[in-house]
Amino acid sequence: MHESTARFESELPEHLPKKRDILEVYSDEEHDKVLKYLESGNVSFRNKALSLIALETGMRAVDICNLKLGDIDWGHDYIHIVQEKTGKSINIPLVSSIGNALIDYLLSERPASDSEYVFLSDNAPYAPLKTHSGCRNVLLHIILDAGIKANGRIYGTRITRHSTASRMLRHGIPLSVISETPGHGNPNSVMVLYLSTENAKLAECTLPIPEVCHD
User: Fold this and answer.
1) Which of 65-69, 81-85, 148-152, 182-186 has the highest mean pLDDT?
2) pTM (two decimals)
């Protein structure tokens, strides 16, 4: 190493920190537009229930596909799941919009089946909707039909998951609560990930520009 830079060698880290990309999310206006479309009557009960779960709870596609009839506790108004990715057991509040959509699907549209899984395919033999691509395709058509432009963003539960946490942050929900709702393991990771999506929150973190004193 050159003598002029040798003294800085001890200051250089061995490993650079992992790059954090700005997360893709739906705005409040886009979120409301999708909800309005889901209430238009142009969506099947299955796709409406699945989309509401993704939009309002931040559940991963694999956990939505793995949702079983016995996971829904109608008496206590929550959905109980064990996350596939983390193995963590969580209870998700069963809000009225999701509960009503599930009831419409289960009573009026879901094919007669002995399957324990909630969401089944549209066509015989009515197998469980067990792939990430199946869930993504449902959300893709909902978003496009609602008139939401991609603008280079991804589709599927990754963006709905990010959007759920981002929206909760904008509404003043504590980070500890946000980390539990979508099932993140570390509240600090939520702060690092989701503060990057909020201009207003980032503005609160900036330091004031010092006054310039003129002689």
Assistant:
1) 65-69
2) 0.76
